[in-house]
Amino acid sequence: MSWRPQYRSSKFRNVYGKAASREHCFDGIPITKNVHDNHFCAVNARFLAIVTESAGGGSFLVIPLEQTGRIEPNYPKVCGHQGNVLDIKWNPFIENIIASCSEDTSVRIWEIPEGGLKRNMTEAVLELYGHSRRVGLVEWHPTTNNILFSAGYDYKVLIWNLDVGEPVKMIDCHTDVILCVSFNADGSLLATTCKDKKLRVVEPRSGRVLQEASCKNHRVNRVVFLGSTKRLLTTGVSRWNTRQIALWDQEDLSMPLIEEEIDGLSGLLFPFYDADTHMLYLAGKGDGNIRYYEIGSEKPYLSYLMEFRSPAPQKGLGVMPKHGLDVSACEVFRFYKLITLKGLIEPISMIVPRRSETYQEDIYPMTPGTEPALTPDEWLSGVNRDPILMSLKEGYKRNSKIVFKAPVREKKSVVVNGIDLLENVPPRTENELLRMFFRQQDEIRRLKDELSQKDIRIRQLQLELKNFRNSPKNN
Questions:
Q1: pLDDT reported for residue 321
Q2: Of 70, 111, 27, 19, the residue nearest 334 (C-alpha)
């Protein structure tokens, strides 16, 4: 996008990015080499979680934010999955609960102890099976506690009620792999992008597709709701294979409001939207820079602000929730950048330059807090409610009093939309199949050795019997 020279009055036109010093980074982390298009990182006000490279299964690190510097190679991991971990997300209302999904077809809920891990964690508080192929995405509902969405390579989105530990709804409108999911402000709508080159707006409780766009000229990869503006923004690729963004009206996806070409690079563009400041951040996978824009309600809608540049390419980016920012430094956004080549996680703060050290109310409006607005039963019955807002001036370090209680589950069928999801056992991962194969081969060799020994013994007895019968004494 070309820089627009006309003057615009905006309090965010001088926002700049500031990378943390080396001692405030997280060093020595074996970041996963998986090529799946995800961030492999999740962060909240207490912990940083990173998917790591591991053999014989999937694992991720959970590090307290204050524990910066070099991380020891034998640092404890969460390592209960049998396949590679593809996505992790913190519960927005309970800060020590994290969800993960994996190639082993499972979604698991983990409870991190106070102060972080002291030893490897292999037992999840809840294991969720319902997908028939690997699970690529997990997402928590933005206003309802204990409602989790998962998207698998079986082209289905399952809605889990963690109060009962079972899937309660299934969205089955996609014809290919789901690439991205995004909620609107109150969680009443779900936007998805799919490998079938379609953008969809879905009513999640019924699974009904409200709007659908066939993006032939703009092949969509990622989508994000722009807060409560009733607009969507997608990133993708144009027909000339240039990276592109498009702005859509959520109630009419027949044509995008605008399309803008970014550059000719090949890395996936990740969009991040801050509804409080109306700022959009674009970060390319494999790039070192982060572009940022301001979203307006009138044309041209997108106004370029500036670009944070860095020579180190990023594999993914974690984003700090608003209540974890440093308001005394006028920090409005914070990324955690994964630099695979260095094994480094680098915090990057987006700062509004202000001379005054007092609380800046104009850049910190009321923001969604850590209290859920709905219970799972209320949301499933059709109730929609805006998130409960909080001020970052007073009590933004307040800890949530909600505690996660894993349900006691019995083995039984899981019927969703008339389909028993557990009727067929989910296929095992390649690693698990290999381990089973080698165990069976060892067992076959053992049995063959036993048979061979018995065969030799039988022949010895037959020979002894023959010699006994032919001896002169018996004649």
A1: 94
A2: 19
Q: Are residues 368 and 426 in the same domain?
A: no
Lowest mean pLDDT among 244-248, 373-377, 440-444: 440-444
Query: Is 417 in a helix, a strand, or coil?
Result: coil
Of the candidates 431, 430, 413, which has an alpha carbon nearest to the alpha carbon of residue 422? 413
Q: Residue 409: its pLDDT value, please?
A: 55
Instruction: Inform me whether the pLDDT recorded for 246 exceeds 60.
Output: yes
Q: Give the structural domain span for 431.
A: 413-462
Task: Tell me whether residue 205 is exposed, middle or buried, using C-beta atoms within 10 angstroms of its C-beta: 0 to 12, 13 to 18, 19 or more.
Answer: middle
Residue 405 lies in a domain: no
Q: Which CATH number does the domain housing residue 313 bear? A: 2.130.10.10
Instruction: State mean pLDDT over 416-441.
Output: 60
For residues 194 and 56, membership in a common domain is answered with yes
Q: What is the largest CA-CA distance in the chain?
A: 123
Q: Does the N-terminal peptide bond of residue 300 adopt cis geometry, omega within 30 degrees of 0?
A: yes
Q: Is-contact 307 263, C-beta < 8 A?
A: no
The residue written with tokens 């018995």 in the block is 454
Q: Are residues 181 and 66 in the same domain?
A: yes
Q: Is 82 helix (H, G, I), strand (E, B) or coil?
A: coil
324 and 429 part of one domain = no
Question: Closest by alpha carbon to 248, among 266, 265, 235?
Answer: 235
Q: What share of the chain is helix, strand, coil (3-state, %, to 5)?
A: 15, 40, 50
Q: What is the C-alpha to C-alpha distance for residues 291 and 305, in angstroms, rounded to an integer?
A: 8
CB-based contacts of 444, cutoff 8 Å, min separation 6: none
Say if pTM beats, i.e. exceeds, 0.85: no
- Cα–Cα distance, 169 to 158 (Å, whole number): 6
Name the nearest CA neighbour of 363 among 278, 298, 273, 280: 278
pLDDT at site 67: 92
What's the one-letter identity of residue 270? F
